[in-house]
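sry for the spam today, last one i promise. C-alpha cells for design, 123 residues
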C-alpha cells in the first residue's frame, strides 16, 4: 500500500517573474514617478536641497524609520548628484524596489503644494 500517488507527474512550481500590481496602484505609481521627476529637476536647479535630503536620510535612519538597505540605496542615489542623467535613471527606475522606495520618499518638502498640484494636473 502506497501513500503517495505515483501516477501523477510532479508539477514544477514557478513563481511570477514580475509582481502583480493592482490597477489603482499603477495610476498612483505614475503620479509618484512624475512628482519625483519634478523634485529631481528642482534639486538640480537648487543644489542646496541635496544637503537637506541627506540630513533627512540620516535623521530617518537614526530614528529607525528606515531600513539599512533603504538607507544605503538613498545614499547611493544621492552620490550621483554630480551626474544628473545617472541620478534620474536611478531615482526614476521602474523596478519594484524603487517603486516601493519612492512611496516612502526622502524627497519630502522639496516641492510646494502649488508645484505638486501643477505636476498632478499635467498628467
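last one done:
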Amino acid at each position: 500500500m502506497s501513500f503517495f500517488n505515483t501516477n501523477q507527474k510532479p508539477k514544477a512550481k514557478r513563481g511570477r517573474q514580475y509582481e502583480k500590481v493592482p490597477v489603482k496602484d499603477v495610476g498612483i505609481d505614475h503620479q509618484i514617478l512624475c512628482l519625483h521627476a519634478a523634485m529631481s529637476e528642482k534639486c538640480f536647479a537648487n543644489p542646496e536641497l541635496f544637503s537637506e535630503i541627506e540630513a533627512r536620510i540620516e535623521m530617518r535612519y537614526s530614528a529607525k524609520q528606515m531600513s539599512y538597505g533603504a538607507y544605503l540605496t538613498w545614499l547611493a542615489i544621492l552620490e550621483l548628484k554630480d551626474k544628473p542623467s545617472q541620478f534620474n535613471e536611478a531615482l526614476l527606475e521602474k523596478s519594484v524596489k524603487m517603486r516601493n522606495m519612492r512611496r516612502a520618499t526622502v524627497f519630502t518638502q522639496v516641492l510646494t503644494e502649488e508645484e505638486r498640484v501643477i505636476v498632478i494636473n499635467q498628467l
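DSSP finds six helices and no strands in the chain. ok im logging off now
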